[in-house]
Amino acid sequence: MAIDYTVELESFEWDIPEGYNIPAVIESHADSFGDRVALKFRDADGGREERTYDDLRRDMNRFANALESMGVEKGDRVIHLLPRDPDVFAIQLGALKRGALLVPSSSMLKPKDIEFRANDCEATTAIVHESLVGMVDEVRADTPLEHFVVLGGDADGWTEFDEVVAGESDRHDGPELKAEDPMSINYTSGTTGKPKPVRHRHRWMRCFELVNAPYWWGVTADDDLSDELLWATTGTGWAKWFWSPVGVGLTTGATQFVYRGDFEPETFLDIMEEEGITRLCAVPTQYRMFAQHDLASYDLKLKEALSAGEPLNREPIEAFREAFDVIPRDGYGQTETVALLTNYPGIDVKPGSMGKPTPGLGTTLIDEDGEEVDDGEIGEIAVPVDCPGIFDGYYEKPHLDEKTFAGDYYRTGDLASRDEDGYFFFEGRADDIIISAGYRIGPFEVEDALVSHEAVAEAAAVGSPHEERGSIVKAFVVLTGGYEGSDELVDELQAFMKEETAPYKYPREIEFVDELPKTSSGKIRRIELRSQERE
Ligand code: ATP
Ligand code: MG
């Protein structure tokens, strides 16, 4: 869908029906086009399954009834740890239909992470894949959890999912759900500290439909989506899952693809070719790894490629443009929000930019006093608090609310600048900015330039304490295959960087490492490198 952005910006209106909720959307999709495929699933061994919108409705209602039989009531916290599985939607939708507060959790969590979350939000019910029950068993005695449902097999002390839904009715007469009722507690990635519990209301999904779908994915519920196959590679426990598979795929009634298997660039490229993926949403790490392959040898039906979560480097943008004539479009937002900035369909992409503000949100840049900053200056990305596209607080964490809701704005903690054409450029998280000899240096610019050198696969830049300069820029570098770290290579990279960036930004120290510390969602944890440097 081509968008006349200038017109849309003016005329955009939030249309959020009072009774909006995603289970009701699925009921309505099933009424209108029940035999349309909602989900094409494939696992690493080539096993395939499909679910139509009718199937989703039936399975959602059966699971909602099962939760009722177990005693789960409106507002109870239901946590899940699930790999990408054909039944994930049914489980998420069923819990929501029951009126529960869904607590999606990553299948990559460790026992201590599970213990933290279950206690933090006082979860009573856990829905966990058979391969992960051990993680929960290690800590279950130290949590408020009472009900344990296992998917995909059996386990001691757990009730099987197939058993709890067997014999349940295909209709669920649950509590009334409104757009303003609490829907979920989504924990943030924990890139800068402990994950934070973000409380969302049912309207969040409607905001995705109104913003992320048209202004990022380029689809709406009114389009003919019969030739489309959407693929968002995210895991089921991250906000990204709600940003795309639920917030775009399900709300618009599209057909989407879900793959259970580890990320491996060649496998993923093969899959895109075999399945005929038309719209892809992946993360920068994945794009960087795609770009290391011979993309020209793949024959894809790809029309759109999207990226979010971290800054997108110029290199993969160029590689995709060359091989597929598709320009990966970056979008920016948080667990706390919908897409606040996107390179919307049809925009003239400026590589390195997160794009422009999405309609209806009023995303802007402010200084410490809450005043808007001028073009060309660095400010904190902020959104007016009365906007429906953001969360309305952390779950029982008033001290966090106080820090982030300041005056008229929700403050994201991210710094950016805006050019004279209205494009936003990511500078870094407020905590990640390096101050060296009075200069403020965003790590991304340093990293982006480093990655454009052929010896560098990945890089992270942090401030390392220095007597005279306060800090110096230090880069941790993962080399591409075939290169080995040496003093000569350090010299070469430094000389290269002095050409690529303003000289004060070049990394005065470079350390070669095998891998960078990352969150389980794949984001670079500069906080770890920083504290390592401080010691
Ligand atoms: P935590 O809040 O626990 O430290 P987190 O902020 O990484 O973790 P998420 O909500 O998953 O948790 O990620 C949102 C953050 O990701 C943003 O605040 C921003 O720092 C970064 N981000 C998201 N999209 C982009 C993008 N397109 N470019 C640059 N950074 C991005
Ligand atoms: Mg955050």
Automatic annotation (TrEMBL):
E.C. code: 6.2.1.1
Domain AMP-dependent synthetase/ligase: 27-395
GO BP: any one term: fatty acid biosynthetic process
Name of the protein described by the UniProt record: AMP-dependent synthetase
Keywords: ATP-binding, Ligase, Nucleotide-binding
Region annotated Disordered, chain positions: 169-194
UniProt KW Membrane keyword: no
Gene: acs
